[in-house]
Specification:
Blueprint lengths: L8 H4 L1 H43 L9 H9 L14 H39 L1 H16 L2 H12 L3 H24 L4 H9 L4 H39 L3 H12 L2 H33 L7
Helix pairs in contact: 2-11, 3-4, 3-11, 4-5, 4-7, 4-9, 4-10, 5-7, 6-7, 6-9, 7-9, 8-9, 9-10, 9-11, 10-11
């Protein structure tokens, strides 16, 4: 009786199996590192928070401890001043979750629009030199004006809408992402560019085959920088535009003197930014292992 042999991926293309294994190893290693980074960051954050309150002698009515924040969300009968008596722990968690969803939506829109616009502009800078001389002064102008001064003007022009919130987040992301992407695109090896040109390839072929893979590390550096920036931009726009999202909730709680809620929401915002940063590092490891400039090299 003749045995039927089923070819495996490794037998058909050993290189493909090896590449998949390298990506898996890179992702697994980064997952462990990202998990440790989140845990260590939270421990350091809570310690510095507690130590700062003790060191500077902050009034307990204003400076709330990590324990106060925990009691705000989970203690049914906290001490007076931690949470309004009319609000239950479930209501506090529900309000924070609803605000977080709104802020993540606003930050996500600004984040992706800012990255897309930055990528397009960076590509045009590399492809068409005159475009850089025309647009860079505008980018520098946007960077030089403080966001706290620009955001009210944007909201005045576009109204208290999602468009205004997205635009604020886009501006926060735009400049640092643009600079990193331009540096990445221009860091492509000259030898690889020469190979493309000798074989008849033009600017677009060079961009797609050489410059974009070379720019991936810088692109993800821009992404990592932009994640907390997009959160800050969204919360700033929300605090000015109304009562939605973390920004609006923090502004309202501050006006009502609910100090614990302010600290609780700010803490969650920082934690979410740290977690999103860690997620980006995992995605970065997978992409660079598969398509980065050193993909496939031992």
């Amino acid at each position: 009786m003749t045995a039927v042999l089923t070819p495996t991926v490794a037998s058909i293309d050993p290189g493909l199996s090896e590449a998949a294994g390298s990506v898996g190893k890179a992702v697994t290693k980064r997952l462990v590192q990202a998990g440790l980074m989140v845990v260590v960051s939270l421990i350091v954050l809570i310690f510095l928070w507690w130590a700062g309150l003790k060191l500077f002698g902050i009034d307990p009515l204003v400076g709330k401890t990590p324990a106060d924040v925990w009691n705000y969300f989970f203690n049914a009968h906290p001490k007076l001043g931690v949470r309004p008596q009319s609000m239950s722990p479930a209501q506090a968690r529900s309000e924070a979750l609803h605000g977080l969803q709104t802020t993540l939506a606003d930050a996500g829109l600004g984040f992706f629009v800012g990255l897309f616009v930055s990528a397009v502009i960076a590509s045009l800078f590399v492809l068409f030199q005159p475009f850089e001389f025309a647009f860079m002064p505008v980018a520098l102008l946007l960077r030089s004006v403080p966001l706290v001064a620009m955001a009210p003007l944007i909201l005045l022009i576009f109204g208290h809408t999602k468009t205004a919130n997205t635009l604020v987040g886009t501006i926060v992301v735009l400049f640092p992402a643009l600079i990193n992407m331009v540096l990445g695109l221009r860091s492509a090896p000259p030898e690889a560019i020469d190979v493309i040109r000798v074989n008849g390839g033009g600017k677009w072929m060079t961009l797609l085959r050489v410059q974009i893979p070379s720019a991936l590390p810088n692109f993800f550096a821009a992404v990592r920088i932009s994640v907390p920036g997009a959160m800050v931009g969204a919360m700033l726009a929300e605090s000015i535009s109304g009562f939605d999202g973390f920004g609006g909730l923090i502004s309202t709680a501050h006006g009502l003197g609910h100090s614990t809620e302010v600290w609780a929401l700010a803490f969650i915002g920082v934690v979410v930014s740290i977690v999103l940063y860690a997620v980006v590092t995992v995605i970065e490891s997978a992409v660079l292992a598969a398509w980065g400039p050193n993909a496939g090299r031992r």
